[in-house]
């Protein structure tokens, strides 16, 4: 391997992901397979690529302080990745970063650009990076410290306050521990935890769901339990949605937006695989995934099909269902953790268009609920327009519905006092329980 091949590969990957829309995990996996990197190199390459993408806005701000001319794309990523290493990776010596970056610039460009890279990095080494503590405007400071778009930080500050916004942005930069859901038809949580521990995993039980296990250490995707479908990967907040549907054996249940089927299969398990569970998704391919997941887990009550949930009244009579889950399509602002670049591609306009689709979906499925039946509305986003405002508007227009008086007391004890609990539902922030961000509420039909 050429001495600087690892850092050069990082620049190639960053250019393809950051400027050409390539998928980070796919391109990284491919590069690792094609090159002769050992496990240390692989770890460093992953860290440089994900770290540079995660802190792109912060690093671009620094770059603007040191370079005023427009750079070729590769040269920009070369400098940003060098900055990331000098800013965040204590174990990597600055002189190695500078030396290799200059070599890469010589190979990729001409003498002039190599001199510029050398001058910029030596300047940074001498002066240090600009101090972000000097920024007075809180939104701008949080945005730059945590590399979040300014509009999003401003929006979160206005909706949830500066402290919550700051904590949320900070935790989004840190990966969360993976969690799995035990398949109760195949094993128990105690047995599954014992087996994982005996294989060297560090695990602990979820306090949010009785079927949940948090994996502190070890790659669960390679475990026998995962490969034999005895556990399935699912965030604890998603488990909460399936659980709060509170479906019982023998009921007729609707999961209106179901793919890839994590919550559908969970609900079927809580029903002891007895009753009927209709699952839909807008995309035929995705509905098929739900059916396949159900078959893999031997959950025979699930009937998954393609449909636009805004037209479900064409398929089902009014008052057909005991329970409905509307896990609506959303902007996904709660699931930014471990996805370094996704936050840069969202816009305030996305939030507003999705809020309107969510309202339409709720309008359509609500009449399908039986009187006395319960409907869970959930999203994996953190935004009032898509969450509590959708619920408040719906309740105002539908006095026959109310927030289920048992909603709060049915929540797991550990989250009874969650800071995001209001009269319109529960907003879970990713920092509250070290999970994804999530919103859910359970409504009941009175008449
Ligand atoms: C948040 S995801 C659902 C996740 C799923 N409940 C789970 O736990 O695995 C939202 C899903 O809604 C689907 N969708 C979007 N618009 C829809 C519509 N109009 N009707 C039905 N499904 C829709 C998307 O394809 C996506 O799979």
Explain how this protein is built.
The chain is 47% helix and 15% strand. It is an alpha/beta fold and 447 residues long. The protein has four domains: 126 residues, N-utilizing Substance Protein B Homolog, Chain A (Orthogonal Bundle), CATH 1.10.940; 36 residues, no CATH class; 54 residues, 2-Layer Sandwich (Alpha-Beta Plaits), CATH 3.30.70; 210 residues, Rossmann fold (3-Layer(aba) Sandwich), CATH 3.40.50.150. The strands form two sheets. Strands 5, 6, 7, 8, 9, 10, 11, 12 and 13 form a nine-stranded mixed beta sheet that branches. Strand 8, helix 16 and strand 9 form a beta-alpha-beta unit. The longest helix is centred in the last third of the chain and has 18 residues. It binds S-adenosylmethionine. Its EC number is 2.1.1.176. Keywords: Cytoplasm, Methyltransferase, RNA-binding, rRNA processing, S-adenosyl-L-methionine, Transferase. It is an enzyme of class 2 (transferase). It catalyses: cytidine(967) in 16S rRNA + S-adenosyl-L-methionine = 5-methylcytidine(967) in 16S rRNA + S-adenosyl-L-homocysteine + H(+).
Task: Describe the structure using short key phrases.
447 residues; alpha/beta; N-utilizing Substance Protein B Homolog, Chain A; Alpha-Beta Plaits; 4 domains; 9-stranded mixed sheet; 4-stranded antiparallel sheet; 18 helices; 13 strands; globular; binds S-adenosylmethionine
Short description:
The protein has 4 domains: 5-130, N-utilizing Substance Protein B Homolog, Chain A, CATH 1.10.940.10; 137-172, no CATH class; 180-233, Sun protein, domain 3 (Alpha-Beta Plaits, 2-Layer Sandwich); 236-445, Vaccinia Virus protein VP39 (Rossmann fold, 3-Layer(aba) Sandwich).
């Amino acid at each position: 391997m050429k001495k600087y091949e690892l850092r050069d590969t990082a620049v190639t990957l960053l250019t393809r992901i950051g400027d050409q829309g390539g998928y980070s995990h796919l391109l990284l996996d491919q590069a690792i397979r094609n090159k002769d990197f050992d496990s240390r190199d692989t770890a460093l390459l992953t860290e440089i690529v994900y770290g540079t993408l995660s802190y792109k806005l912060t690093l671009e701000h620094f770059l603007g302080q040191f370079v005023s001319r427009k750079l070729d794309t590769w040269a920009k990523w070369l400098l940003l990745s060098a900055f990331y290493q000098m800013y965040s990776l204590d174990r990597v010596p600055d002189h190695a970063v500078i030396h290799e970056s200059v070599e890469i610039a010589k190979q990729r460009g001409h003498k002039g650009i190599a001199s510029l890279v050398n001058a910029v990095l030596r300047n940074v080494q001498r002066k240090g990076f600009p101090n972000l503590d000097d920024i007075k405007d809180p939104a701008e400071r949080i945005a730059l410290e945590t590399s979040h778009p300014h509009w999003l930080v401003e929006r979160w500050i206005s909706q949830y306050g500066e402290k919550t916004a700051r904590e949320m942005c900070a935790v989004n930069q840190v990966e969360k521990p993976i969690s799995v859901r035990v398949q109760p038809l195949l094993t128990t949580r105690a047995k599954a935890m014992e087996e994982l521990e005996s294989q060297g995993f560090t695990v602990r039980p979820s306090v949010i769901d009785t079927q949940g296990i948090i994996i502190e250490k070890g790659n669960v995707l390679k475990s026998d339990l995962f490969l034999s479908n005895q556990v399935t990967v699912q965030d604890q907040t998603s488990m909460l949605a399936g659980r709060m549907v509170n479906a019982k054996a023998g009921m007729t249940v609707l999961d209106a937006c179901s793919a890839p089927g994590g919550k559908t299969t969970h609900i079927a398990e809580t029903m002891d695989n007895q009753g009927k569970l209709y699952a839909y998704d807008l995309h035929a391919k995705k509905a098929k995934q739900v059916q396949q997941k159900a078959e893999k887990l031997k959950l025979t009550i699930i009937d998954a099909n393609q449909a636009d949930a805004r037209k479900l009244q064409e398929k089902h009579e009014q008052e057909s269902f005991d329970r409905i889950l509307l896990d609506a399509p959303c902007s996904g602002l709660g699931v930014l953790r471990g996805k370094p670049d996704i936050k840069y591609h969202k816009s305030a306009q996305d939030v507003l268009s999705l809020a309107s689709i969510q309202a339409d979906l709720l309008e359509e499925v609500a009449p399908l609920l039986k009187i006395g039946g319960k409907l869970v509305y959930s999203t994996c986003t953190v935004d009032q327009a898509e969450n509590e405002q959708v619920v408040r508007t719906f309740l105002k227009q539908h006095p026959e519905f109310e927030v289920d008086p048992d909603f709060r007391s049915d929540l797991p004890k550990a989250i009874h006092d969650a800071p995001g609990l209001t009269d319109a539902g529960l907003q879970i922030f990713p920092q509250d329980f070290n999970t994804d961000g999530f919103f859910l509420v359970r409504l009941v039909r009175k008449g």
